[in-house]
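> example.struct
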């Protein structure tokens, strides 16, 4: 079984436990949903799957939202923004590695657009006005961030943040930062060319995750 599969099963188990807990002791959600307009600028439908990477608090919660979103074929929790050498639960939890708890979302752009992914992300997945925290979770690893994989994604994300800020839908400024992830793609291609025997097609987002606290 792949590491991605194990993570997905682990997330499902955590979700099931959380649902059982809610049934016994109802609690209020850390972040309230906000009704927001769809993005005025979006990406056109295209063939093949696309990837979106977003961060906003505990990755299990964000992953759970997109696992229930039509058009999403896979949502996997991991770490983005730091070195792979420090992408472990224990190290990231210190808030000193530069990573953000993130979710890699594979989606069919003919069924759901990148802009709709962002609308769900800003509306129900987290509170984009909280700086380096979400609810009870505090630290830079819980920051609100979008890791774009193309110039077009970056333009859509930045335009949407500007649109939502102008509409004042939250009452406070959005603190979400788009980071350019695609600058590292040439490095990956070089790895594939020069070290073919050591290259794996499916990326390993999380090296080690300890969910027992």
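> example.seq
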């Amino acid at each position: 079984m792949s590491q991605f599969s194990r993570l997905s099963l682990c997330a499902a188990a955590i979700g099931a436990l959380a649902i059982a807990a809610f049934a016994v002791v109802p609690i209020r959600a850390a972040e309230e949903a906000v009704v927001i307009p769809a993005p005025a600028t979006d990406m056109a439908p295209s063939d093949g799957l696309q990837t979106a990477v977003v961060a906003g608090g505990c990755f299990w919660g964000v992953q759970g939202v997109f696992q229930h979103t039509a058009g999403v074929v896979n949502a996997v929790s991991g770490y983005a923004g730091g070195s792979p050498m420090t992408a472990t639960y224990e190290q990231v939890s210190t808030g000193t590695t530069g990573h953000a708890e993130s979710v890699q979302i594979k989606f069919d752009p003919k069924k759901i657009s990148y802009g709709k992914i962002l609308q769900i992300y800003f509306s129900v997945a987290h509170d984009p006005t909280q700086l380096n925290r979400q609810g009870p979770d505090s630290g830079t690893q819980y920051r609100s961030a979008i890791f774009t994989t193309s110039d077009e994604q970056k333009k859509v994300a930045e335009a949407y943040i500007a649109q939502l800020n102008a509409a004042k839908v939250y009452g406070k400024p959005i603190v979400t930062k788009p980071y350019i992830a695609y600058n590292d793609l040439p490095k990956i291609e070089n790895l594939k060319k020069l070290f073919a025997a050591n290259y794996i097609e499916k990326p390993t987002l999380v090296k080690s995750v300890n969910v027992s606290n």
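> remarks
The helical segments are 3-24, 59-67, 89-92, 114-125, 151-167, 185-194.
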